[in-house]
Design a protein that fits this description.
- Helix content is 61%, strand content 5%.
- It is mainly α.
- It has two domains: 7-91, no CATH class; 99-202, no CATH class.
- Helix 4 (60-93) runs parallel beside helix 7 and helix 7 packs antiparallel against helix 8.
- The longest helix is centred in the middle third of the chain and has 34 residues, at 60-93.
- The chain starts with 6 loop residues before the first strand and ends with a helix.
Length: 203
């Protein structure tokens, strides 16, 4: 018997052969939804009870809808491509506003943000060094500012395909780092480094 406290994500449901339309029509509202407290992303969290998913998969309605899925999938693929193009265009056109802070205030917030992240890490030890390692403060400031502009990740909503979402996510991150570098020239080199690292990862 399936554990009734086991959940499957939206992507997990789709990997079982469900289409977006089937999820909407047969499952309806997710059993858990909101933001994932373990991530900084504003992208919505949607979880479905696995037991409920499996129960629906045994119904005649699921079998009938699955039989119609190939015809629907062609239309869905066309819609997904239109959606991907629209999201990419929106990301390219969206003005990115980076918080402008005095140097000392940005450093203070970056250190505090770093300490918060370190405290959440497994095996974290209490306390923090009074003096950050060489070059660390620049990295911490970029990380803090990247978090400060994470609200723009809502532009990715509606992209669930791995390829389309990955492409849009990379474009968005590049634009965010470019905006941070433009707002804070002293951080531009670190922003360019992060963009270059991501580009190497694409190859």
């Amino acid at each position: 018997m399936t554990d009734r406290t086991t959940y499957v994500s939206f992507a997990g449901v789709r990997s079982r052969g469900w289409t977006d339309t089937m999820v909407r029509e047969l499952l309806g509202t997710p059993d858990v939804q909101g933001r994932d407290p373990r991530r900084w992303s504003l992208a919505p969290l949607r979880l479905y009870l696995l037991a409920r998913v499996e129960t629906v998969e045994r119904t005649p309605e699921f079998a009938e809808t699955s039989a119609l899925a190939p015809a629907r999938s062609s239309a869905a693929a066309a819609y997904a491509e239109r959606r991907r193009a629209a999201v990419l265009a929106a990301i390219r056109a969206e003005p990115i506003e980076v918080p402008r802070l005095p140097g000392p205030e940005l450093e203070r917030r970056a250190v505090r943000h770093r300490q918060f992240l370190a405290a959440r890490s497994p095996g974290a030890s209490p306390g923090a060094s009074a003096e950050p390692p060489a070059g660390a403060l620049v990295r911490w400031q970029v990380t803090y500012l990247r978090h400060a502009v994470s609200r723009y990740e809502v532009l990715l909503d509606g992209l669930y395909g791995e390829t389309g979402r990955g492409e849009a996510g990379r474009l968005l991150r590049r634009r965010l780092y470019e905006a941070i570098g433009a707002a804070y020239p002293a951080l531009a080199a670190e922003c360019r480094r992060r963009i270059a690292v991501e580009r190497r990862g694409e190859r």
